[in-house]
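Changelog note: in this version the structure field was regenerated for every chain. One regenerated record is shown below for reference.
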Amino acid sequence: MIEQWAGARRAVADAARERTLVVGFQTRIGRGLIPRVVAELAAKLPEWQLNFRQIPWRDPTTGLADGTADVAVAWLPVPDTGEFGWKVVATEQRWVAVPLGHRLARLKTVPFARLLDQPFIALPLAAGPARDFWLATDQREHPARVVAESDTVDETFEAVASGLGVALLAAGNAEIYRRDDVVCRPVSGLRPSELAVVWRTGDTRPAVRIFADACQRCLCSAGAAEPDEVEPEDLLGAGA
């Protein structure tokens, strides 16, 4: 009887995992996305649960390559190897974060040319193309002057606040990560950043497609207007 009970518990746990979709993210998702997607999935897939997992920037696939995540809400670019598909759900101007009192903080908009000689906080080398994008490498004649690397957005803001350097970020994240010791300003002369829902092309489960479609529909229809009042970590284990 004990063996049968243990086997039954394992079977229930396995069934629960089969109905759980793990969403990888590297910066707070915000933008009003999570509550709307949770509501849509609850209506279409009431037996499924969403779990959220923050992935460090050293993983350029946001947890997809090693199976840590089933889908991801991530900033492009992701490795273009054919293993991943994606849909863009938001397009946002790139801004710059500078320490409080920095001379560029006095400007309403910072021309990118004014950033060329600034020390930068960079993503780690393992981040691949994303590191180059957030250094705007394609806009430079000479490599950026990298003074520090960070593995998470919180590390980046701490480095900026301490005066080590500046960092590029998406416009929506300037609001989501608002703090008193860092000033964020829009940057002119750069192409915008793109937030996407990303999945493994070999994963054909209907739940993956429904989640991706819900992300695109919810964010694009709302115009990516406002940050969430509910963050992913608040939903962990909540059955959402």
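Spot check on this record: The first strand starts at residue 20 and ends at 25. Residues 23-90+193-235 form a domain with the D-Maltodextrin-Binding Protein; domain 2 fold (CATH 3.40.190.10).
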